[in-house]
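thought: user wants a sequence for this fold. calling inverse folding tool.
action: design(structure=
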């Protein structure tokens, strides 16, 4: 079965694909009718150039950029890589929370600029995690992994999602209530028409002064203009790994001391990326053998 991959994906599992061509989708100039399976990392699929396409194996848990509606219409099967990336993304979420609350990046910059003159720094006080309230927007796999890690920091955990579930990981709140009660808010919902712009100006205004907003999900879930105004004013703090127009980051954010910015590092560990490739390849091989897909989206 002919497979097209948009890059050489990490790990030895990739070598198990017998007939694979590596080419960026932007380099396709004519139709490739013999391609049956496509491996992408949440990229728009040019279905018109792949008329024989039967499977999209997505190297990501999110599939908002694939053009899922058109793939469904054409009967193309889609898989993703849930679960295997939850730990790495949850780890980064906690790193961003610590970075923002303990002002680690600001402290690093002071040392590098030679501005550290003594150990007593009343002007550089931060906020402890112990006893703070963490609001988790979306208690899926990643949200649950964050909640479990939060226990080790003695955080009080609230969560919100479309359906309330029985769990000992946190207390349920409606979204507006969660925003108003939390010291830290972290976002772990997929990007859908319902969640695009979910955290808008009205909801940002519900956050108390000094609240930290962390986003390792999708940039488009937060109204960037509204968030920018809150950050520039100094009312809120943020730890951001995702942005609405990646790799673009709003220019005015780059010099702000109250925001920590990382370049979409959520799954960027060797172990996680190799596990994602393993799952992608296993889905392709299962499809080729006519077996049930391991992690089907459609």
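)
observation: tool returned 298 residues.
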């Amino acid at each position: 079965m002919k497979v097209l991959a948009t890059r050489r994906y990490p790990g030895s599992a990739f070598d198990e694909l017998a007939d694979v061509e590596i080419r960026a989708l932007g380099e396709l100039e004519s139709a490739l009718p013999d391609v049956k399976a496509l491996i992408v990392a949440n990229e728009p699929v040019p279905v018109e150039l792949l008329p024989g396409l039967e499977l999209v194996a997505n190297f990501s848990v999110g599939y908002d950029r694939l053009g899922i509606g058109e793939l469904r219409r054409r009967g193309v099967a889609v898989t993703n890589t849930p679960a295997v990336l939850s730990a790495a993304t949850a780890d980064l979420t906690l790193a961003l929370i610590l970075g923002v609350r303990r002002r680690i990046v600001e402290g690093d910059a002071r040392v590098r600029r030679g501005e550290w003159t003594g150990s007593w720094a009343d002007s550089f006080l931060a906020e402890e995690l112990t006893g703070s309230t963490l609001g988790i927007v979306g208690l899926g796999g990643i949200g649950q992994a964050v909640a479990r890690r939060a226990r080790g920091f003695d955080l009080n955990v609230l969560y919100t999602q479309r359906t309330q579930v029985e769990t000992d990981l946190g207390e349920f709140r409606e979204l507006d209530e969660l925003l108003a009660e939390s010291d830290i808010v972290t976002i772990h919902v997929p990007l859908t028409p319902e969640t695009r712009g979910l955290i808008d100006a009205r909801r940002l205004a519900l956050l108390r002064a000094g609240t930290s907003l962390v986003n390792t999900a999708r940039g488009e879930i937060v109204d960037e203009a509204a968030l920018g105004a809150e950050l520039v004013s100094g009312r809120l703090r943020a730890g951001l790994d995702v942005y609405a127009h990646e790799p673009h980051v709003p220019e005015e954010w780059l010099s702000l001391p109250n925001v920590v910015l990382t370049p979409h590092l959520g799954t960027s560990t060797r172990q996680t990326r190799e596990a994602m490739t393993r799952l992608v390849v296993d889905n392709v091989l299962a499809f080729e053998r006519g077996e049930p897909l391991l992690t089907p989206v459609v």
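thought: summarizing for user.
answer: Here is the designed sequence. The first strand starts at residue 2 and ends at 5.
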